[in-house]
Amino acid sequence: LFEQYSQRHPENSEVLLTLAGDAYELGKDDKARKLYTRLLENSPVADTVLFQAAQVFDAPGYEKRRSELWREYLLRHPDYMPFRQNLVDHYLADGSFEAALLQLKYLADNNDNNDLFLLAAAKVCEEDLQRPDRALFFYEKYLDKHPSDAEIGRKIAEIHTILAANLLVAVKKEGAGALWQRLGQITVERAPIFLQMAELLEQKGDNEPLLDVLTTLYDKTSPQDDLALRIAHHYYRQGQYQKTLDYLAAISTPNNIPTSAILLQADAQLHLGLEIKALGSYQQGLVRDPADFTLRKKALTLAGKIGDSNALQAIFAGGIGLGDDAGLRE
Q: How far is CA 124 from CA 91, 108, 136, 137, 260, in A?
Protein backbone atom coordinates (compact mmCIF):
# COMPACT_ATOMS: atom_id res chain seq x y z
CA LEU A 1 0.00 0.00 0.00
CA PHE A 2 2.82 2.38 0.94
CA GLU A 3 4.53 1.70 -2.37
CA GLN A 4 1.33 2.25 -4.31
CA TYR A 5 0.71 5.47 -2.44
CA SER A 6 4.29 6.65 -3.05
CA GLN A 7 3.90 6.03 -6.78
CA ARG A 8 0.71 8.12 -6.86
CA HIS A 9 2.22 10.81 -4.58
CA PRO A 10 5.98 10.91 -5.28
CA GLU A 11 6.23 14.30 -3.58
CA ASN A 12 5.40 12.80 -0.15
CA SER A 13 8.87 12.49 1.36
CA GLU A 14 7.61 11.01 4.63
CA VAL A 15 6.23 7.98 2.83
CA LEU A 16 9.41 7.62 0.76
CA LEU A 17 11.51 7.83 3.93
CA THR A 18 9.43 5.11 5.57
CA LEU A 19 9.74 2.85 2.54
CA ALA A 20 13.48 3.52 2.25
CA GLY A 21 14.05 2.74 5.92
CA ASP A 22 12.01 -0.47 5.70
CA ALA A 23 13.92 -1.60 2.61
CA TYR A 24 17.23 -1.00 4.35
CA GLU A 25 16.12 -2.89 7.47
CA LEU A 26 14.97 -5.82 5.33
CA GLY A 27 18.33 -5.96 3.56
CA LYS A 28 16.94 -4.74 0.25
CA ASP A 29 19.90 -2.40 -0.26
CA ASP A 30 19.44 -1.70 -3.97
CA LYS A 31 15.84 -0.70 -3.45
CA ALA A 32 16.77 1.39 -0.42
CA ARG A 33 19.45 3.24 -2.41
CA LYS A 34 16.95 4.01 -5.21
CA LEU A 35 14.46 5.40 -2.70
CA TYR A 36 17.08 7.49 -0.89
CA THR A 37 18.27 8.80 -4.26
CA ARG A 38 14.72 10.06 -4.89
CA LEU A 39 14.64 11.64 -1.44
CA LEU A 40 17.97 13.38 -2.03
CA GLU A 41 16.60 14.95 -5.19
CA ASN A 42 13.98 16.84 -3.17
CA SER A 43 15.07 20.15 -1.70
CA PRO A 44 15.54 20.89 1.10
CA VAL A 45 16.96 17.55 2.20
CA ALA A 46 16.42 16.78 5.88
CA ASP A 47 19.39 15.96 8.12
CA THR A 48 17.83 12.58 8.84
CA VAL A 49 17.76 11.72 5.15
CA LEU A 50 21.44 12.67 4.72
CA PHE A 51 22.47 10.64 7.74
CA GLN A 52 20.50 7.53 6.80
CA ALA A 53 21.48 7.75 3.14
CA ALA A 54 25.15 7.75 4.14
CA GLN A 55 24.56 4.41 5.87
CA VAL A 56 22.70 2.96 2.90
CA PHE A 57 25.47 3.93 0.48
CA ASP A 58 28.12 2.41 2.74
CA ALA A 59 28.89 -0.39 0.30
CA PRO A 60 31.60 -1.18 -2.28
CA GLY A 61 31.28 0.87 -5.41
CA TYR A 62 29.59 3.82 -3.74
CA GLU A 63 32.67 5.45 -2.21
CA LYS A 64 32.26 8.75 -4.04
CA ARG A 65 28.54 9.05 -3.30
CA ARG A 66 28.82 8.38 0.41
CA SER A 67 31.79 10.74 0.77
CA GLU A 68 29.61 13.46 -0.78
CA LEU A 69 26.92 12.68 1.79
CA TRP A 70 29.42 12.84 4.65
CA ARG A 71 30.67 16.22 3.47
CA GLU A 72 27.16 17.59 3.07
CA TYR A 73 26.18 16.39 6.53
CA LEU A 74 29.33 17.93 8.03
CA LEU A 75 28.49 21.30 6.52
CA ARG A 76 25.46 21.24 8.81
CA HIS A 77 27.03 19.40 11.74
CA PRO A 78 30.79 20.06 11.61
CA ASP A 79 31.50 18.36 14.93
CA TYR A 80 30.10 14.96 14.01
CA MET A 81 33.46 13.26 14.32
CA PRO A 82 32.62 9.76 12.95
CA PHE A 83 31.96 11.19 9.50
CA ARG A 84 35.20 13.18 9.64
CA GLN A 85 37.11 10.04 10.52
CA ASN A 86 35.36 8.25 7.65
CA LEU A 87 36.48 11.04 5.32
CA VAL A 88 40.08 10.65 6.50
CA ASP A 89 40.03 6.96 5.58
CA HIS A 90 38.35 7.73 2.26
CA TYR A 91 40.88 10.40 1.28
CA LEU A 92 43.85 8.28 2.32
CA ALA A 93 42.60 5.36 0.25
CA ASP A 94 41.99 7.73 -2.64
CA GLY A 95 45.45 9.30 -2.38
CA SER A 96 43.95 12.72 -1.58
CA PHE A 97 46.48 13.41 1.17
CA GLU A 98 45.94 17.17 1.49
CA ALA A 99 42.21 16.59 1.97
CA ALA A 100 42.92 13.88 4.55
CA LEU A 101 45.29 16.24 6.38
CA LEU A 102 42.63 18.93 6.49
CA GLN A 103 40.23 16.55 8.24
CA LEU A 104 42.92 15.28 10.61
CA LYS A 105 43.80 18.83 11.61
CA TYR A 106 40.15 19.55 12.39
CA LEU A 107 39.94 16.37 14.48
CA ALA A 108 43.14 17.26 16.33
CA ASP A 109 42.02 20.84 16.98
CA ASN A 110 38.57 19.89 18.22
CA ASN A 111 39.24 16.85 20.41
CA ASP A 112 40.92 16.84 23.81
CA ASN A 113 42.02 13.25 23.32
CA ASN A 114 43.78 14.01 20.05
CA ASP A 115 47.02 11.99 20.28
CA LEU A 116 46.16 9.61 17.45
CA PHE A 117 45.04 12.46 15.20
CA LEU A 118 48.25 14.43 15.79
CA LEU A 119 50.44 11.42 15.01
CA ALA A 120 48.33 10.48 11.97
CA ALA A 121 48.61 14.04 10.62
CA ALA A 122 52.37 14.02 11.16
CA LYS A 123 52.64 10.69 9.34
CA VAL A 124 50.68 12.00 6.35
CA CYS A 125 52.95 15.04 6.13
CA GLU A 126 56.18 13.13 6.54
CA GLU A 127 55.49 9.99 4.50
CA ASP A 128 52.70 10.75 2.04
CA LEU A 129 53.33 14.42 1.28
CA GLN A 130 57.11 14.19 1.80
CA ARG A 131 56.96 17.39 3.87
CA PRO A 132 58.82 16.86 7.15
CA ASP A 133 58.61 20.60 7.79
CA ARG A 134 54.82 20.34 8.04
CA ALA A 135 55.04 17.18 10.15
CA LEU A 136 57.07 19.11 12.71
CA PHE A 137 54.03 21.14 13.79
CA PHE A 138 52.06 18.02 14.74
CA TYR A 139 54.98 16.23 16.39
CA GLU A 140 55.66 19.30 18.53
CA LYS A 141 52.01 19.49 19.56
CA TYR A 142 52.18 15.84 20.58
CA LEU A 143 55.45 16.29 22.47
CA ASP A 144 53.96 19.22 24.41
CA LYS A 145 51.49 16.71 25.82
CA HIS A 146 54.00 13.89 26.24
CA PRO A 147 57.40 15.52 26.90
CA SER A 148 59.01 12.22 27.94
CA ASP A 149 58.24 10.46 24.65
CA ALA A 150 61.79 9.77 23.47
CA GLU A 151 60.76 8.37 20.10
CA ILE A 152 58.90 11.52 19.09
CA GLY A 153 61.78 13.59 20.44
CA ARG A 154 64.11 11.70 18.12
CA LYS A 155 61.78 12.24 15.17
CA ILE A 156 61.77 15.97 15.84
CA ALA A 157 65.57 16.01 16.05
CA GLU A 158 65.79 14.13 12.74
CA ILE A 159 63.52 16.69 11.08
CA HIS A 160 65.64 19.52 12.52
CA THR A 161 68.68 17.91 10.87
CA ILE A 162 66.89 17.58 7.53
CA LEU A 163 65.66 21.16 7.61
CA ALA A 164 69.07 22.53 8.62
CA ALA A 165 70.68 20.90 5.58
CA ASN A 166 67.88 21.94 3.24
CA LEU A 167 67.95 25.57 4.38
CA LEU A 168 71.65 26.27 3.78
CA VAL A 169 70.97 27.63 0.31
CA ALA A 170 68.08 29.74 1.61
CA VAL A 171 70.11 31.33 4.40
CA LYS A 172 72.78 32.43 1.91
CA LYS A 173 70.16 33.80 -0.46
CA GLU A 174 67.71 35.56 1.84
CA GLY A 175 69.69 36.03 5.04
CA ALA A 176 69.32 34.52 8.49
CA GLY A 177 66.92 37.19 9.76
CA ALA A 178 64.36 36.58 7.02
CA LEU A 179 64.78 32.82 7.39
CA TRP A 180 64.19 33.08 11.14
CA GLN A 181 60.86 34.79 10.46
CA ARG A 182 59.87 32.21 7.87
CA LEU A 183 60.74 29.31 10.16
CA GLY A 184 58.37 30.77 12.72
CA GLN A 185 55.52 29.66 10.47
CA ILE A 186 56.77 26.07 10.72
CA THR A 187 57.98 25.62 14.28
CA VAL A 188 58.38 27.36 17.62
CA GLU A 189 61.72 25.57 18.07
CA ARG A 190 63.88 27.52 15.64
CA ALA A 191 67.05 27.60 17.74
CA PRO A 192 67.99 23.89 17.30
CA ILE A 193 67.68 24.23 13.53
CA PHE A 194 69.88 27.34 13.51
CA LEU A 195 72.49 25.64 15.68
CA GLN A 196 72.65 22.70 13.29
CA MET A 197 72.89 25.07 10.34
CA ALA A 198 75.82 26.76 12.10
CA GLU A 199 77.58 23.42 12.52
CA LEU A 200 77.16 22.59 8.83
CA LEU A 201 78.32 26.02 7.71
CA GLU A 202 81.35 25.83 10.00
CA GLN A 203 82.27 22.44 8.52
CA LYS A 204 82.06 23.97 5.04
CA GLY A 205 84.07 27.03 6.05
CA ASP A 206 81.28 29.41 4.97
CA ASN A 207 82.11 32.11 7.48
CA GLU A 208 79.86 34.91 6.28
CA PRO A 209 76.54 33.00 6.46
CA LEU A 210 77.83 31.26 9.60
CA LEU A 211 78.19 34.56 11.43
CA ASP A 212 74.83 35.68 10.07
CA VAL A 213 73.21 32.55 11.54
CA LEU A 214 74.99 32.83 14.90
CA THR A 215 74.33 36.54 15.40
CA THR A 216 70.68 36.17 14.40
CA LEU A 217 70.31 33.31 16.86
CA TYR A 218 71.94 35.42 19.57
CA ASP A 219 69.66 38.39 18.85
CA LYS A 220 66.45 36.35 18.71
CA THR A 221 66.94 34.22 21.82
CA SER A 222 67.82 34.79 25.46
CA PRO A 223 71.47 35.87 25.81
CA GLN A 224 73.79 32.88 25.95
CA ASP A 225 77.36 33.33 27.11
CA ASP A 226 78.67 30.32 25.20
CA LEU A 227 77.11 31.65 22.00
CA ALA A 228 78.58 35.14 22.57
CA LEU A 229 82.01 33.58 23.07
CA ARG A 230 81.65 31.49 19.93
CA ILE A 231 80.71 34.57 17.89
CA ALA A 232 83.64 36.51 19.36
CA HIS A 233 86.08 33.79 18.25
CA HIS A 234 84.68 33.87 14.71
CA TYR A 235 84.93 37.65 14.48
CA TYR A 236 88.50 37.49 15.76
CA ARG A 237 89.46 35.01 13.04
CA GLN A 238 88.00 37.40 10.47
CA GLY A 239 90.02 40.30 11.87
CA GLN A 240 86.94 42.14 13.13
CA TYR A 241 88.43 43.01 16.49
CA GLN A 242 85.91 45.58 17.69
CA LYS A 243 83.06 43.13 17.17
CA THR A 244 85.16 40.55 18.99
CA LEU A 245 85.31 42.87 22.01
CA ASP A 246 81.62 43.73 21.74
CA TYR A 247 80.56 40.10 22.08
CA LEU A 248 83.09 39.38 24.82
CA ALA A 249 81.70 42.38 26.72
CA ALA A 250 78.18 40.92 26.32
CA ILE A 251 79.08 37.87 28.40
CA SER A 252 76.92 38.15 31.50
CA THR A 253 79.11 36.12 33.84
CA PRO A 254 82.65 37.47 33.31
CA ASN A 255 83.94 35.57 36.33
CA ASN A 256 83.19 32.34 34.48
CA ILE A 257 84.83 33.40 31.23
CA PRO A 258 87.61 30.96 30.28
CA THR A 259 91.21 32.18 30.42
CA SER A 260 91.48 31.61 26.67
CA ALA A 261 88.74 34.23 26.15
CA ILE A 262 90.62 36.72 28.33
CA LEU A 263 93.69 36.26 26.16
CA LEU A 264 91.51 36.62 23.05
CA GLN A 265 90.26 39.91 24.48
CA ALA A 266 93.83 41.10 25.12
CA ASP A 267 94.93 40.23 21.59
CA ALA A 268 91.93 42.04 20.08
CA GLN A 269 92.68 45.09 22.21
CA LEU A 270 96.29 45.07 21.05
CA HIS A 271 95.19 44.92 17.41
CA LEU A 272 93.07 48.02 18.06
CA GLY A 273 95.95 49.83 19.82
CA LEU A 274 94.26 49.60 23.22
CA GLU A 275 97.47 48.69 25.02
CA ILE A 276 96.43 49.82 28.49
CA LYS A 277 93.26 47.76 28.31
CA ALA A 278 95.22 44.82 26.94
CA LEU A 279 97.56 45.02 29.92
CA GLY A 280 94.54 44.92 32.20
CA SER A 281 93.32 41.80 30.40
CA TYR A 282 96.74 40.16 30.83
CA GLN A 283 96.63 40.94 34.53
CA GLN A 284 93.13 39.50 34.73
CA GLY A 285 94.47 36.32 33.16
CA LEU A 286 97.30 36.16 35.69
CA VAL A 287 94.78 36.32 38.52
CA ARG A 288 93.28 33.17 37.06
CA ASP A 289 96.59 31.41 36.48
CA PRO A 290 99.49 33.04 38.34
CA ALA A 291 101.87 30.25 37.24
CA ASP A 292 101.40 30.98 33.52
CA PHE A 293 104.90 32.39 32.98
CA THR A 294 104.41 32.79 29.22
CA LEU A 295 101.51 35.12 29.93
CA ARG A 296 103.46 36.86 32.70
CA LYS A 297 106.33 37.58 30.29
CA LYS A 298 103.84 39.04 27.78
CA ALA A 299 102.40 41.24 30.51
CA LEU A 300 105.89 42.38 31.64
CA THR A 301 106.86 43.22 28.07
CA LEU A 302 103.69 45.23 27.51
CA ALA A 303 103.96 47.03 30.86
CA GLY A 304 107.55 48.01 29.99
CA LYS A 305 106.52 49.17 26.52
CA ILE A 306 103.85 51.53 27.81
CA GLY A 307 106.01 52.63 30.76
CA ASP A 308 103.71 51.49 33.56
CA SER A 309 106.27 50.95 36.31
CA ASN A 310 103.69 50.10 38.95
CA ALA A 311 102.21 47.35 36.81
CA LEU A 312 105.70 46.17 35.88
CA GLN A 313 106.68 45.82 39.53
CA ALA A 314 103.40 44.12 40.51
CA ILE A 315 103.56 41.62 37.65
CA PHE A 316 107.19 40.76 38.40
CA ALA A 317 106.59 40.41 42.14
CA GLY A 318 103.55 38.23 41.51
CA GLY A 319 105.69 35.63 39.80
CA ILE A 320 108.36 35.36 42.47
CA GLY A 321 108.24 32.13 44.42
CA LEU A 322 105.78 30.40 42.08
CA GLY A 323 108.38 28.10 40.57
CA ASP A 324 111.17 28.50 38.08
CA ASP A 325 111.11 32.28 37.73
CA ALA A 326 114.45 32.52 35.99
CA GLY A 327 112.67 33.54 32.84
CA LEU A 328 111.34 36.64 34.54
CA ARG A 329 114.88 37.85 35.23
CA GLU A 330 116.05 37.55 31.62
A: 11, 14, 11, 12, 50
